[in-house]
Amino acid sequence: MITAKYNAIFMGAVMIIFLCFSNHIIRIFTQDAAVVKYGTQALQVFGSAYIFYGIGMVMTRHLTVPAIPKHLPDKLYLFLADPNTIGLVPV
Predict the structure, then answer these.
(1) pTM for this structure?
(2) Most Cβ neighbours (<10 Å): which of 31, 50, 60, 86?
(3) C-beta atoms surrounding 12 within 10 Å
(4) How many whole angstroms separate alpha carbon 79 and alpha carbon 68?
(5) What are the phi and psi torsion angles at 64 (to 5°)?
(6) Are 40 and 23 within 8 A, CB to CB?
C-alpha cells in the first residue's frame, strides 16, 4: 500500500496544479480565447480525477514490474507496461 500512498500524493499534486493553473497551462499552447475557455474547463475536469486514476493504477497492478525469466539471463530486456498488458520485449 506504500505505492498507493506515494502515487496518491504525486497525482494529488498534479491534480492541484491542473485545477489551479489550468488557464496558464492552456495559454502556453494557444492564445485563442475560445480554445482557452474550453481547454481550461477540460483540464479542470480531467485534473480533478487524477488522484483516483493514480490509486486505480496501483490497485490494478499497473506499476508492478514482472520478474526477469530465469531462462533468459544473458539477454538484455526492456520492460514495457501499457494499460492492458505487461510484457517483455527484446532489445
Answers:
(1) 0.59
(2) 50
(3) 14
(4) 9
(5) -90, 150
(6) yes
What distance in Å separates the CA atoms of residue 65 and residue 61, rounded to the nearest whole number?
9
Find out whether 67 and 78 touch, Cβ atoms under 8 Å. no
CB–CB of 22/50 below 8 Å? no
User: Which phi and psi angles does 45 have, rounded to 5°?
Assistant: -65, -50
Strand pairing report for 77-81 and 86-90: antiparallel
Nine cell digits for residue 66: 514482472
Q: What angle do CA 24, 42, 7 make, to 5 degrees?
A: 85
Q: Quick one: cell of 20?
A: 489551479
User: pLDDT digit string (tens) for 14-36?
Assistant: 899 999 999 999 999 999 999 99
